[in-house]
């Protein structure tokens, strides 16, 4: 009561109970506590082991409901008569902090503290103190505690009226930000008279640094090889929400792309800085969230340590992080000198600074001379080291986190968590904004949930199918699109969802989650007991958990590869994802995708205009190239039946265009109800010689020409994609066009592009055979490879229509259809699902269409007549043209005559192309002189002239994916193949742990044997040591599949795989080409080499054997290798039963069995 008789409402000093874990002795005394806004309430410390490791706050019940007081560990400022415990003792066998002994007697302390008394409370005393009941805080103090986030009130069961009462403060339990922080809750309590200034720290800065979501979890770890620990690292980083992690001893190098790609997923990116010297091991790296931008500023390997310096940026903040690794055998004196020199520069950086890594100093040994000198060095540069717990299994502090002494960058305690090697993860929070939660809006349709029968029923009852009297193609096309779009919106409407992008591990399943809980339980038990046996059990469970992660991940990716086995496109994308990480959007920097799309569209159009303008500035006299008109003309296209259209649709791929009303696979599913309408549209287009405008609009995606090129517009090529219906109409027209050309107006015989039974391999086989036969006749061949600039995009429509009419007899409605197809074409550029404006095209043919490449071949058909006026032979594959001329180097005049003839041919070719609005890229034309070493020594050809450029001869050229050298030895080609194949094997080797043997065989076929088999028909007769190079690749692939040790025999593995040796694979390819050519399934120029064996005037039994004539040659290394001789020679060696096989499938089966028996001596 006060002087006025009223009750004194001023709160009395709060009696606060603090529960601490000591493990042995209960030691408590009344002390004082000072905080901003607190009036120094007296409080007692109480220790009770049963509550030491509780993760949730202790709540007390009284008549006003539940009340709890949360106090984060180590956030208290203790003054006057309380100081921190020096820390737990370390158990060297486990590397973990064991519970400390009972309160240390002051008699064991230095004499300066001898007068401080320690008061021990018995159990009875503590129970008596417990019954003293709660007291109250001032309202201002309560508001401050609520604002600081360390006071929570759970509500009151007595009703709303009781909520206004004074909140009782009961037990305070130091609540850590992590379950592992409980190890740092040991406080030794002493009492004294007066204030000890040495233990005073600003309370506000500590209390205000609550570990909120705006701060970032930072970690360091010595991994001792990351390669086999990717699963554990990713699982720990995602599970603990680590924002930045520094790794030392990564043991990575530049070839570990798969490992780096594995870490650069699931919301994270990883950048490595390998050791710069030739020594193994070492290396540093940084793992960070993909919302950050990390840049390597510096990195070097000194004599005593190596480091990498990174700067991480967010929207408005940046931080500099230095990863340091000091090998344990390096000189400490040398390190201190070199590190001191480095610190002189780095400490002056303007950004917040963190230096972290493995320094290999025992910082826990207070008498260690190296540790003392290192601490002095840090003090010299005003730096502080924050790690106080053992980071190594030996119990020592080796991994350090260093910041500026004046910086408040480190928040809260530093914790030691998961053991990943002989080192633990060391983690803490730093005052750096974590990445904001990123969201994205996704629009989708639930296409898989569509009821196909109901979908068909709606189509049948729609106007599209009910009205069969459509006469206007434009109206029918619009009705087709609108009807299918409406029905699709009904069954699978577009839904938009805002997703929060979170790190997700795809192989993390229920079994892994359950075992992770077991691991956490074992860890809590070890933390609570501190026994060596519990820590050993925990380590064993960690190892088993890591093994489970590996096996689960392997099963996941093995299943994915098995699902992609039949789709090479998906298989390549999957392996590219595994080996290269997430797909990077290779586009120029931009903020607005629509603006970038418009810029691309303008660039593509302007590029064509510039080429056309440059062509117009050149005056040429076109060479004569008259062609006789075909006797039979194509006046119109025949209408198609429903069955014909169904066959075209069923054999088409499932690729769709964004302009299609429904996906292609859904069209095939509903083909029985849609086929009549599609057939009607195809026939209306053919009958009326009309192509609707929406069929002539292409979606263009800019693709980088080659990986690694600069992201500028000139390095991108446009790839068109048209609607599915337009492709169906094109295929219907093409089938009739090919049939007309086959019988009445043949396509150029020496043009192999985009033609049935033709390929790059048949084209190269023809050119190589001609050159080898010339070398066999002791001749030299001049080979020129022409390069055209944007050939498909500069075709003049009127010239093309004239060629179709005059050279191929396309007249009437058929000619009008092509005129409609070419006119009014448009394209839109697509970037990130956003399209540009429409850009009108008045020249060119779309490359992504079925018709475009064929029209280009027809367009340049007269070019081969121009070439024939100068050279006996040439060859083309689409816009790649090869000119070659052979001569015998008897004297200088023959050389000059050959060069003059070649240059005259090039000049006429160039003039004809310019006259027809095409342009040779003179500077990119390549020139190769081929011959034997003896014959090449007789000539001296310095260059040839191509337009305004002088082209010098090269030692080798790349020709349609193969490599020709000046001696036609194919050694460069074989070297390139081996390099590609072993690179593929290395990638597969890095992901082999994910794969089963069958999945590995699938990948080996896609990435290794496909390279070995490409154009291997060119390798017949090469020296044995060259084929052995390729055989080593095949052997290495077999070892990888079965995981056979290096020095074990490989023949049995090849036999079990049923793989032919490389030499027999060459024979198999050549014989297959011969069989197809003899049965009209190959190019005509290949069949011309295969003449039946006959003897004039005699009828021999060999005439009925199907044998071929083998021409005579002079040199085994030249003529015998040419297909003109090697093909008939190998064919005649086959048994008659195989040569007379009725089909290609049966021939391949019998041939494979025959060669397999020969290779492994099974006869």
UniProtKB/TrEMBL annotation:
Keywords, sorted A to Z: Nucleotidyltransferase, RNA-directed DNA polymerase, Transferase
Domain Reverse transcriptase stretches: 684-968
Keyword flag ATP-binding: no
GO terms for MF: RNA-directed DNA polymerase activity
Gene3D superfamilies: Endonuclease/exonuclease/phosphatase
InterPro entries on file: DNA/RNA_pol_sf (IPR043502), Endo/exonu/phosph_ase_sf (IPR036691), Endo/exonuclease/phosphatase (IPR005135), RT_dom (IPR000477)
Name of protein: Putative RNA-directed DNA polymerase from transposon X-element
Organism: Stylophora pistillata (Smooth cauliflower coral)
């Amino acid at each position: 009561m006060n002087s006025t008789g009223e009750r004194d409402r001023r709160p009395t000093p709060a009696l606060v109970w603090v529960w601490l874990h000591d493990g042995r002795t209960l030691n408590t005394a009344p002390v004082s506590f000072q905080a901003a806004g607190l009036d120094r309430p007296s409080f007692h410390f109480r220790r009770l082991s049963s509550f030491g490791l509780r993760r949730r706050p202790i709540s007390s019940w009284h008549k006003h409901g539940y009340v709890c007081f949360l106090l984060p560990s180590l956030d208290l400022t203790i003054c006057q008569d309380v100081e921190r415990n020096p820390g737990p003792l370390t158990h060297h066998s486990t590397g973990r902090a064991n519970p400390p002994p009972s309160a240390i007697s002051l008699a064991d302390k230095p004499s300066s503290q001898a007068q401080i008394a320690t008061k021990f409370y018995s159990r009875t005393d503590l129970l008596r103190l417990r019954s003293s009941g709660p007291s109250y805080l001032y309202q201002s103090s309560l508001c401050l505690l609520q604002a600081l986030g360390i006071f929570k009130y759970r509500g009151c069961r007595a009703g709303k009226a009781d909520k206004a009462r004074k909140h009782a403060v009961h037990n305070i339990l130091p609540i850590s930000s992590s379950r592992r922080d409980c190890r740092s809750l040991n406080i030794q309590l002493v009492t004294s008279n007066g204030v000890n200034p040495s233990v005073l720290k600003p309370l506000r800065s500590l209390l205000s640094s609550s570990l909120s979501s705006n701060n970032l979890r930072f970690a360091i770890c010595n991994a001792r090889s990351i390669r086999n620990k990717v699963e554990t690292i990713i699982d720990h980083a995602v599970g603990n929400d680590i924002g930045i992690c520094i790794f030392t001893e990564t043991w990575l190098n530049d070839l570990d792309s798969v490992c780096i790609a594995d870490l650069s997923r699931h919301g994270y990116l990883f950048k490595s800085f390998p050791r710069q010297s030739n020594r193994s091991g070492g290396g540093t790296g940084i793992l960070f969230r993909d919302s950050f931008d990390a840049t390597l500023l510096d990195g070097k390997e000194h004599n005593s340590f190596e480091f990498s310096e990174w700067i991480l940026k967010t929207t408005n903040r940046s931080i500099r992080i230095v990863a340091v690794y000091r090998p344990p055998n390096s000189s400490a004196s040398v390190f201190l000198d070199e590190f001191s020199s480095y610190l002189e520069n780095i400490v002056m950086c303007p950004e917040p600074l963190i230096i972290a890594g493995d320094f290999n100093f025992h910082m826990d040994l207070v008498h260690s001379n190296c540790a003392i000198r290192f601490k002095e060095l840090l003090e010299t540069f005003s730096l502080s080291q924050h790690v106080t717990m053992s980071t190594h299994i030996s119990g020592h502090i080796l991994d350090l986190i260093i910041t500026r002494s004046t910086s408040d960058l480190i928040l809260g305690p530093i914790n030691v968590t998961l053991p990943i090697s002989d080192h633990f993860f060391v983690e803490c929070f730093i005052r750096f904004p974590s990445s904001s939660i990123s969201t994205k809006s996704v629009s989708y349709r639930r296409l898989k949930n569509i009821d196909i029968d109901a979908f068909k029923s709606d189509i049948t009852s729609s106007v599209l199918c009910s009205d069969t009297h459509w006469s206007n193609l434009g109206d029918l096309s619009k009705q087709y699109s609108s009807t299918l779009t409406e029905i699709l919106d009904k069954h699978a409407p577009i839904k938009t969802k805002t997703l929060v992008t979170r790190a997700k591990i795809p192989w993390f399943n229920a079994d892994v989650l359950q075992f992770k809980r077991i691991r956490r339980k074992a860890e809590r038990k070890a933390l609570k007991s501190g026994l060596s046996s519990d820590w050993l059990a925990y380590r064993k469970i960690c190892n088993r958990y890591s093994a489970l992660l590996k096996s689960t991940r392997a099963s996941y990716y093995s299943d994915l590869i098995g699902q992609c086995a039949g789709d090479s496109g998906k298989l390549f994308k999957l392996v590219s994802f595994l080996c290269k990480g997430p797909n990077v959007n290779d586009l120029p920097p931009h903020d607005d995708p629509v603006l970038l799309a418009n810029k691309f569209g303008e660039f593509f159009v302007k590029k064509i205009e510039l080429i056309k303008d440059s062509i117009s500035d050149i005056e040429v006299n076109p060479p004569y190239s008259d062609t006789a008109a075909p006797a039979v003309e194509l006046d119109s296209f025949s209408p198609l039946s429903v069955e014909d259209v169904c066959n075209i649709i069923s054999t088409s791929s499932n690729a769709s265009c964004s302009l299609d009303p429904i996906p292609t696979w859904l069209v095939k599913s509903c083909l029985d109800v849609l086929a009549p309408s599609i057939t009607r549209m195809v026939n209306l287009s053919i009958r009326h010689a009309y192509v609707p405008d929406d069929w002539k609009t292409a979606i263009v995606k800019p693709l980088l020409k080659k990986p690694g090129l600069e992201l500028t517009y000139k390095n991108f090529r446009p790839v068109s994609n048209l609607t599915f219906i337009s492709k169906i109409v094109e295929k219907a027209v093409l089938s009739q066009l090919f049939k007309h050309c086959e019988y009445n107006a043949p396509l150029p015989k020496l043009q192999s592009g985009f033609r049935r039974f033709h390929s790059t391999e048949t084209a190269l086989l023809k050119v190589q055979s001609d050159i080898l036969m010339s070398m066999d006749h002791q001749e030299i061949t001049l080979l020129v490879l022409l390069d055209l600039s944007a050939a498909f995009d500069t075709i003049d429509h009127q010239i093309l229509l004239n060629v179709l009419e005059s050279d191929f007899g396309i007249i009437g409605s058929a000619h009008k259809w092509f005129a409609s197809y070419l006119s009014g074409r448009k394209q839109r550029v697509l970037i990130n699902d956003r399209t540009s404006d429409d850009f009108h095209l008045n020249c060119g043919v779309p490359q992504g269409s079925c018709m475009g490449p064929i029209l280009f071949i027809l367009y340049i058909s007269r070019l081969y007549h121009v070439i024939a006026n100068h050279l006996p032979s040439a060859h083309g594959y689409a816009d790649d043209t090869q000119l070659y001329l052979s001569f015998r180097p008897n004297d200088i005049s023959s050389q000059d005559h050959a060069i003059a003839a070649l240059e005259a041919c090039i000049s006429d070719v160039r003039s004809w192309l310019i006259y027809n609005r095409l342009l040779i890229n003179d500077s990119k034309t390549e020139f190769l002189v081929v011959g034997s070493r003896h014959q090449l020594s007789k000539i001296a050809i310095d260059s040839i002239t191509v337009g305004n450029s002088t082209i010098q001869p090269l030692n080798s050229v790349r020709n349609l994916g193969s490599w020709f050298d000046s001696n036609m030895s194919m050694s460069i080609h074989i070297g390139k193949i081996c390099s590609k194949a072993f690179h593929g094997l290395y990638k597969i080797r890095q992901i082999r742990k994910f794969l089963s043997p069958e999945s590995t065989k699938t990948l080996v076929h896609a990435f290794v044997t496909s390279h070995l088999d490409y154009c291997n028909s060119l390798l017949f007769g090469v020296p044995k040591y060259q084929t052995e190079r390729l055989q080593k690749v095949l052997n290495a692939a077999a070892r990888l599949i079965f995981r056979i040790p290096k020095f074990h025999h490989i023949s049995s593995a090849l036999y079990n795989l049923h793989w032919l040796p490389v030499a027999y694979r060459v024979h198999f390819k050549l014989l297959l080409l011969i069989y197809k050519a003899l049965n009209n399934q190959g190019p005509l120029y290949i069949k011309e080499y295969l003449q039946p064996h006959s003897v004039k005037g005699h009828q021999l039994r060999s005439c009925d054997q199907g044998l071929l004539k083998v021409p005579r040659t002079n040199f085994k290394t030249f003529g015998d290798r040419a297909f003109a001789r090697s093909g008939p020679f190998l064919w005649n060696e086959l048994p008659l039963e195989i040569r007379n096989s009725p089909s290609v499938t049966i021939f391949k089966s019998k041939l494979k069995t025959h060669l397999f028996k020969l290779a492994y001596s099974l006869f």
